[in-house]
Design a protein that fits this description.
With about 260 residues, the chain is of the alpha+beta class. It is built from eleven helices and nine strands. It has a four-stranded antiparallel sheet with strand order 7-6-8-9, with helices on one face. The protein has a three-stranded antiparallel sheet with strand order 3-5-4. Strand 6 and strand 7 form a beta hairpin. Helix 1 crosses helix 3. The longest helix is centred in the first third of the chain and has 13 residues. The chain is elongated and about 85 Å long. The termini are far apart.
């Protein structure tokens, strides 16, 4: 029986050679999957194209699932000289690669239609081949500094009361009792011409006392700040530090005066 030739078309692998070749010994597992794969420079571009699909944004959840996308987006932005922006809708966050700093968000076709900066491309390729990844030390340092936070109520004076998912009304009742708001709450319910079902203590804290709630109705993947009155400086300062502690500069800067 003659020898059979294996053709590899995975251009994302660093061992891939033009024409379907491979520069290393190919090892296959029991299912026929290649175990010799290693991420090549092209891999980081390909995962950005896959994440974009036919859209002009990348969902932040995809980046959280595959941190390599951060590196890929950096390479794409550098080599195609793109701008960057973020947009938030509730707990959904979208990352956009733009036509310059102030241009429109671009999809895959829009990006690849631009001229590639070959000087930057060669520099990053050379760095990659020498084991130098972009901002790797800074990335590791930032990951060490981040932490997760509990949901909760924030008073106008900047006092935070933890309130895990599903306990916001219970926590509001405890705050009202501790702060002596209970009689005022019932007076507010009576004056509003409704019963306690229509006007909960959490509504009272938000609408009357100026508390804001850091929460997420889905219970996971993000934080929402809900306030019925304008946030005070104490609240903004707390929220800035709260989100900076989690490494979320984009969210934190929404509360800068």
């Amino acid at each position: 029986m003659g020898k059979r030739k294996i053709t590899c078309n995975n251009a994302s692998c660093k061992h891939h050679i033009s024409g379907g070749g491979c520069d290393t010994c190919i090892m296959l597992d029991g299912s026929g999957k290649c175990k010799s794969f290693e991420k090549g420079f092209a891999y980081y571009f390909h995962i950005v194209w896959d994440a974009l699909g036919n859209k002009n944004f990348i969902d932040m959840i995809e980046v959280q699932r595959n941190p390599d996308l951060r590196i890929g987006m950096y390479y794409v932005m550098e080599c195609y000289e793109l701008g960057f922006s973020e947009m938030e809708w509730g707990t959904c966050r979208m990352l956009m690669l733009k036509n310059g700093e102030n241009g429109e968000p671009l999809n895959y076709e829009g990006i690849t239609a631009r001229e590639l900066n070959m000087e930057k491309f060669r520099k990053h390729l050379n760095d990659f081949e020498n084991g130098i990844m972009p901002n790797q030390a800074q990335k590791e340092q930032e990951q060490q500094k981040t932490e997760t936070k509990e949901f909760g109520w924030l008073s106008p004076t900047g006092v935070f009361t933890e309130s895990p998912f599903g306990t916001h009304e219970e926590s509001a009742e405890q705050i009202c009792e501790r702060k002596g708001f209970t009689d005022e709450y019932w007076k507010w319910v009576k004056e509003s011409g409704d019963n306690e079902i229509g006007h909960l203590m959490r509504d009272f804290l938000s609408e009357v006392k100026g508390y804001c709630l850091i929460h997420n109705p889905s219970g996971y993947a993000g934080y929402i700040v809900t306030n019925m009155k304008a946030l005070t400086k104490h609240q903004k300062d707390f929220l800035y530090n709260y989100f900076m502690d989690m490494g979320d500069r984009f969210k934190a800067e929404q509360f800068v005066e």
